[in-house]
Specification:
With 223 residues, this protein is of the alpha+beta class. It folds into two domains: 79 residues, no CATH class; 126 residues, OB fold (Dihydrolipoamide Acetyltransferase, E2P) (Beta Barrel). It is built from six helices and five strands, in the order ααααααβββββ. It has a five-stranded antiparallel sheet. It is elongated, with a radius of gyration of 25 Å. It starts with a helix and ends in a 10-residue tail after the last strand.
Length: 223
């Protein structure tokens, strides 16, 4: 399954692409071990042709066939049916309300980070940890994410950030100082263009100049 998902370009829907080499190496090792296991000669007791061993042998054969059918069915289903991405509802469930702790947050605090390649996760860490918010005011952003409601009725642009795999996925959200166009609902994907501004409370927010609906990206996560 791991090798098949890698070849079809879908493994990143389960794990961080940086972990692909490790997952594939382990998969190959397990395949080699499984094939090598067929070369192991059974113990001498299995060569006893006494009738007392007939029933256990039949049970073992049935168990082997049943296990093979079930395992093959699971593997084929995983390769044939497209994997479902984590939903906006799950992101809301995992939102603890605490500042996100993604890689690079320590650099943001020092104010020495280049924001030109920032995604939603990077900006979310910046908004939560920047000690000099005015340093980022006026920077332009173009981000793709899904719509989420804020705690105070506002709108947020969100994306799930994966460290190792989907099990540890955390939602990253950015406050947007503008309403979304009519017809968009929670979980809908949009491309936002705008500027980073400092609001009246001294917090960073996004002032959107354009919010356009888009299809879900082929790779919906950030890493």
């Amino acid at each position: 399954m791991t090798l098949g998902l890698t070849v079809t370009g879908r493994l990143q829907l389960y794990i961080n692409p940086a972990q692909t080499w490790f997952a594939c190496a382990v998969a190959i090792l397990l395949l080699v071990g499984a094939v090598a296991s067929f070369a192991i000669r059974p113990g001498e007791e299995h060569h006893d042709h006494g009738h007392e061993h007939a029933a256990p042998s039949r049970v073992g054969l049935v168990a082997t066939i049943a296990g093979g059918v079930v395992a093959s069915g699971v593997a084929v289903a995983a390769l044939v049916f497209p994997p479902a991405t984590l939903s906006a509802e799950l992101a809301m469930e995992r939102d603890t309300g605490t500042p996100p702790l993604f890689a690079g947050a320590d650099e943001v605090e020092l104010g020495v980070v280049d924001t030109s390649a920032f995604g939603i996760g990077d900006w979310s860490a910046t908004f939560a940890t920047a000690t000099s918010p005015e340093r980022y005011a006026g920077e332009q952003v173009r981000l793709t994410g899904f719509v989420m409601p804020g705690d105070d009725g506002s709108v947020e642009l969100s994306r799930l950030v994966i460290t190792h795999c989907v099990i540890d996925a955390q939602p990253a959200s950015l406050p947007v100082a503008a309403g979304v166009p009519d017809g968009l609902a929670t979980g809908d994907w949009v491309e936002l263009t705008g500027d980073v501004v400092v609001d009246d409370s001294g917090a960073l927010t996004i002032e959107a100049s354009s919010i356009e609906p888009v299809d879900e990206p082929e790779d919906p996560y950030e890493y």
